[in-house]
Amino acid sequence: MSDVAINAAASESSPTLKAKDFSSGAHPIWCPGCGDYGVIAALERGLAKHGRPPHEVVLVSGIGCSSRLPAYTSCYGFHGVHGRALAVAAGLKLTRPDLEVIALGGDGDGYSIGGNHFIHACRRNIDMLYLVMDNRVYGMTKGQPSPTTEPDWDSRIAPGGPGLRPFNPLQLAIAAGANFVARGFAGDPDGLSELIVEGIRWPGFAFVEVLSPCITFRPEQAAWKKMVRPLTVPPAKDPPVATATVLSDDGFSLGVLYRSDSPRPPPAEKPSATLTDIERQFALG
């Protein structure tokens, strides 16, 4: 039986969970209209569908508006430093393969200071999910261009636009070796929740880019809800085919673009030493 089938069977035999079981009850402090509200709704629904209880799920984030998300769930969470979410998440998954590990972040945190970790997380193909909320702007630090900002986006901080070709995270993820690559939309929580479930259950490193509007600094992104549409081709299994699909798309097609069965690193053996044993090795005197 495949890993996907095993995970699906396990979730079907689990007690029925509801989205509210994954909420901490804390009220998010995002701006009104922020797309991240839709993402947390989709994540809670997706985790409920997946069927693993909150104490078996760990959410790891970096810095930014979207990285506040772990505090709003009842799962275990780790709010790390800028750009290092994937490094922490990878180490956790390798040492605790029994846990469901999900890394979270935004386009600045994930593709700028965290870009190197993104490349190598795809390459290592560790079995975890990376969910990136992309609004093409640095929202928490007042509207600077991000790696995915259009070159001609004019703002007070970057008059005339940044003038740089925007980063294409899906293209890079496929080239670097991710096993699962998809795009969702914060305005479609049900559709996004399905992508989250599929990404969690697909073996290897799964990457889901989420179009998550920041209408505070980019009010024109409110039009995204009229621009998104379902992907018209099935998920590619071949990297060149998937790359061609990504490069020919305008960035608003939603769905799974790429699925692969590339080899993954073997799971780490559970350490035999206890924390007390490790502390004893460093004792002085």
Textual characterization of the structure:
With 285 residues, the protein is α/β, with parallel strands linked by helices. It has a single domain (3-281), classed as Rossmann fold, CATH 3.40.50.970. It contains 10 helices and 8 strands. An 8-stranded mixed sheet has the order 2-1-3-4-6-5-8-7, sandwiched between helices. β5, α7 and β6 form a beta-alpha-beta unit. α4 packs across α5 (115-124), α5 (115-124) packs across α6 and α6 runs antiparallel to α9 (239-248). The model is unreliable at 1-6 and 8-13 (pLDDT under 50).
Supply the key terms.
Rossmann fold; 10 helices; disordered N terminus; 285 residues; single chain
Topology:
Layout: H1 3-13, H2 36-50, E1 57-61, E2 76-79, H3 85-95, E3 100-106, H4 107-113, H5 115-124, E4 129-134, H6 169-176, E5 180-185, H7 189-201, E6 206-211, H8 224-227, E7 229-230, H9 239-248, E8 253-259, H10 275-281
Parallel strand pairs: 1-2, 1-3, 3-4, 4-6, 5-6, 7-8
Antiparallel strand pairs: 5-8
- Write down the CATH class: Alpha Beta
Structural Rg: 19 Å
- CATH domain topology: Rossmann fold
Indicate the CATH architecture.
3-Layer(aba) Sandwich
How many separate helices?
A: 10
Proportion in helices: 25-40%
Compute the number of structural domains. Answer: 1
- How large is the share of residues in beta strands? 15-25%
User: Number of DSSP strands?
Assistant: 8
Lateral arrangement of strands in the main beta sheet: 2-1-3-4-6-5-8-7
Average predicted confidence as pLDDT = 90
The span between the termini is: 53 Å
What is the makeup of the main sheet? 8 strands, mixed
Q: What is the succession of H and E elements?
A: HHEEHEHHEHEHEHEHEH
Fourth CATH level, the homologous superfamily: Thiamin diphosphate (ThDP)-binding fold, Pyr/PP domains
- Overall shape: it is globular
Q: Which secondary-structure class do the elements indicate? A: alpha/beta
Q: Low-confidence spans: pLDDT under 50, at least 5 residues?
A: 1-6, 8-13
